[in-house]
TrEMBL record:
Protein name, UniProt field: HD domain-containing protein
CDD domains tied to this protein: HDc, NT_ClassII-CCAase
Keyword line: Magnesium, Metal-binding, Nucleotide-binding, Nucleotidyltransferase, RNA-binding, Transferase, tRNA processing
Source superkingdom: Bacteria
Cofactor dependency: Mg(2+)
Spans traversing the lipid bilayer: none
GO biological process, one term: tRNA processing
SMART domains reported for this sequence: HDc (SM00471)
Family affiliation: Belongs to the tRNA nucleotidyltransferase/poly(A) polymerase family.
Species this chain originates from: Candidatus Aphodenecus pullistercoris
Limits of the HD domain: 249-371
Amino acid sequence: MKRKCHIDDNVRALGEIFRQAGHELYLVGGAVRDWLLGLENDDWDFTTDALPEEVMALFPRRCIPTGIGHGTVTVRFRGRSYEVTTFRSEGSYSDGRHPDSVTFVRSLESDLERRDFTINAFAANTSDGIIIDLHNGMRDLKDHVVRAIGDPEERFREDALRMLRACRFASRLDFTLDEATEAAATKLSGNIRLISAERIREELFKLLMGRNPVRGLELMRRTGLLAHVLPELMDCYGVEQVGRHHEDVYHHCLTTLEMARRHSYPLIVRVAALLHDVAKPRCLKVETDGTTSFHGHDRLGGEMVDAIMRRLKSSNEERELASLLVREHMFNYTDEWSDGAVRRFIRRVGAQNIEPLIQLRIADAQAMDPSCRLDGLWAFEERMKGEIGRKVPLSVKDLAVDGNDLMALGIPRGPMLGKVLSAILEAVLDDEGLNSPEVLSDLALRKWKELS
Ligand code: ATP
Ligand code: MG
């Protein structure tokens, strides 16, 4: 029986315009795969025999030549954008990442052949939805297998990123890798160095957001990709922790990531979960009683994560958050903390980072002991939220006086002004009742004398 993919009215109407001009339009790639699996996918890709300029001519003023060199045109149609790529086949790949040339072809068969995995090579006709499966993708979907199309070694030599994509789809769909595909990746994993950091990061982050990221990372480790992409994490493999932990550092990191996944925590919390103990091998000390300790692994870990995110060319925002979470993950809250101590903590971490930091600690704690009590962490979060909700002064800009006020009192502009502001903030963090212009002016003059 022929399987059909649902084609909505807009897509059918889009296809009709191509057909009237004597062309074909197919839905391809992830959208068809995910439809067959009953998964959501809003990323729709189309392929056609029409040449890019022919597509542009069909939709005058409604096209953006997004990747015209590769044959991709974005068509605006009924308020939506559709990426349409001309059937193509690729020439040889002498650099292991880009085809030397792209040839537009008139057959769907050659277009499907150049795709990476059997489960990514379906095409659905936009008139009747009938799915074309020339590479036995249905069988692999049923068996939950990621399998390269054709000779896996050849496919990975053409484009080394495909090895990482294989791990990404294994995670995303919770599939295994076909044996020959895994063997080829193991043989060629070193070629991943040919791939740009941006493309690696994109696949790695998608892997972390998948259904089974531990499976994806274990595949990366076994094939050797992990040693290239995250050597710092690979160094944690087999580093035993004697004491509270039941796993070595590497496995504890993966389990922490798995806990973050179970809670559906966001990407950067997952990145931090995976890397939170990455400095442990460098901070390892064996104590006289035989237990291990890792003093300073949080601070050094924060620096290492900063460097890793820089290497992956992550945005500043993502890099700073991941690094901060790792640096601050060892806080030791007890209900004896004073309000001032709680406010100082919020000030150091930043109000907006409290939630992800608590999430990281929950994942970390549950990785050590899935049935551990989390009351302390909840109570801490509640207390911090309470302080933030009351809008207590937490930074210099929340003070009832500013630099100009202090200069009007005679305190000179320059480093002294900053020191005095910090000193009065310290006092206000302990006692918010001090935050009035009169009290703070007096206090500022006293602090100035003390500090001069
Ligand atoms: P997602 O739902 O995560 O977007 P996807 O399968 O659509 O998954 P994309 O990266 O968007 O993945 O790629 C779209 C399609 O293009 C793939 O399904 C595959 O057919 C093809 N493709 C993408 N990258 C490659 C590659 N490096 N080599 C060969 N084919 C590729
Ligand atoms: Mg896609």
